[in-house]
Amino acid sequence: MTKLNNIQMVDLQLQYERLKSDIDNGISEVISSAKFINGPTVSNFATNLAKYLNVKHVIPCANGTDALQIALMAAGIEPGDEVITPNFTFIATVEVVALLQAKPVLVDVNPDDFTININELKKLITPKTKAIVPVHLFGQCANMKEIMELAKKHNLLVIEDCAQSIGTDHYWGDKPQKAGTMGDFGCTSFFPSKNLGCYGDGGALYTNDDELASIAKSITNHGSTVKYHHDRIGVNSRLDSIQAAILNVKLKQLDDFNRRRQAAAIFYDHQLGIIEQIETPAKQDFSDHTYHQYTIKVPKGENLKLQAYLKEKGVPAMVYYPIPLHKQKAFEKWTDSREFPVSDELAERVLSLPMHTELKKEELTYICDTIKDYFNGK
Fold this sequence. Notes:
The longest helix is centred in the N-terminal third of the chain and has 22 residues, at 12-33. α1 (12-33) crosses α8 (241-251), α3 (64-74) packs across α7 and α9 packs parallel to α12 (361-376). The chain has twelve helices and 13 strands. The two termini are 18 Å apart. The chain is an alpha/beta fold. The strands form four sheets. Strands 1-9-8-5-4-2-3 form a seven-stranded mixed beta sheet, sandwiched between helices. A two-stranded antiparallel sheet has the order 6-7. The chain folds into two domains: 13-251, 3-Layer(aba) Sandwich (Aspartate Aminotransferase, domain 2), CATH 3.40.640.10; 254-376, Aspartate Aminotransferase, domain 1. It is globular and about 65 Å long.
């Protein structure tokens, strides 16, 4: 098998070349206008994204981590409040809870779709619990119907972390609802590698609650709604106009981006699903999967070995996440010596393969054949 060169985990260069004219024009218009912060391009993007998501309010901000923190601040999370989050996620989801001096309450995840285990979640609700932050990991939604019913029963806020799932449909009720539009807030990131990514940092919150939207918007701007009048403590977190211009171009392509990812995932499924040692990504009936990551499970302890083998053959692969949060030094005082067996096992089994909008059939074939060679050699 001839080695292929230049396979990318995420190929942003080819995507840019395909959209180059529109992106360059959008950037040029912002520079010509000299309206770099909170200009009409940002407002236009917020309106366009709100329409796409079918949500009342979109509040752009500087990055996805800020989006989560601002949502918690707007929701009134205070020191000592408990906020329930999954244990198997990127640190930002939990970091912002600690930054506000609230208590992160970590919950293990499901072994199939890697989202928060609702049965475990139920056991950890206390009188101090104020919010749940489900993470729609790798492009698939957590079970929002059950989460929202639980939140309503206990009068809890729900802040959806959809940094990896923008555009994903959740099937609940008469028609699909987009990830991030079912809770009190949805929070997303526009980091370049995301399904909808800009060329720097960027993020947004979305909500159907008018009051929460007004508070969140003021928090992004130093707690101000009128210049030099500060009604609350806020932060400085704004999406700049150049990034908004890029996102306006890419938003029109988002459904196509996600279809391209899904097509690549189907190829992977067919090729890798026949390998006895591999579990391909589970797909739930209540959610589409937009494959921010295509994450397989291999026998325990094999993920790093397979990763190294693929690297030798010119195929990048990543382990998300090699150290679950309960084993991170930063969170040791909040774990109460509880065990997280699923998270521990996943850290030794998961491996994410190249996934982006520009994957070619020859690249997918090479990746799958290389994985087959690895297991055939066992």
